[in-house]
Design brief:
By secondary structure, this protein is mainly alpha-helical. The protein is about 50% helix and about 5% strand. It has 11 helices and 4 strands, in the order αβααααβαααβαααβ.
Length: about 170
């Protein structure tokens, strides 16, 4: 009987996105192979997720997916600066994220990128911008006109402070 309760508890346990593998992530509603891979890539590049707001920074995850995940995920391992997170995330990682655009191969090949004239393919040269966010930038530009500054990309769904910080060194508007 106690085994049954254990299995029942495990069935309703939230998936810790900071330690989950591809298969565990794919068990979540609305998360298939490509979104699971995007979550793993974001976690590798940026360190542990602290909240649902961090998941919103993952390419392909938007408000409806977040609503479906709200009660299905947890942010245990590494979210609060646990020793495991400190060991897995060197201090240099956070400064590397801000400095990565000038030194990464994609950035060297594609910098600078004019967000007011670039097509979706060219926009993917910006750090943190995949196909989904590139399409959202183009759509926002079509709907609202040119961006006055790179910081105005914050108005695009799926782009937040972390993405802005990563792409700032390669982004131009003139």
């Amino acid at each position: 009987m106690s085994l049954w309760f254990l299995l029942l508890a495990l069935a309703f346990a939230a998936v810790d996105v900071n330690v989950a593998d591809q298969a565990a992530l794919e068990s979540l509603p609305g998360i298939g192979p490509s979104k699971a891979q995007a979550i793993l890539a974001w976690r590798e590049q940026n360190g542990p997720f602290k909240s649902l707001d961090d998941l919103d920074q993952v390419d392909g995850i938007g408000p409806s997916t977040l609503a479906n995940l709200r009660d299905q995920v947890s942010f245990g391992a590494g979210a609060a600066g646990t020793p495991a997170q400190v060991a897995a995330t060197p201090a240099a990682k956070s400064t590397t994220a801000a400095k990565a655009p000038p030194t990464s191969p994609a950035a060297d090949a594609g910098c600078p990128v004019n967000v007011n004239t670039a097509d979706a393919g060219a926009l993917t040269a910006l750090p943190g911008i995949g196909d989904g966010k590139a399409a959202a930038i183009v759509q926002h530009r079509t709907d609202h006109g040119n961006f006055a500054s790179c910081d105005a990309l914050d108005d695009v769904t799926g782009i937040g402070p972390a993405t802005l910080s990563a792409l700032r060194a390669c982004c131009v508007v003139k």
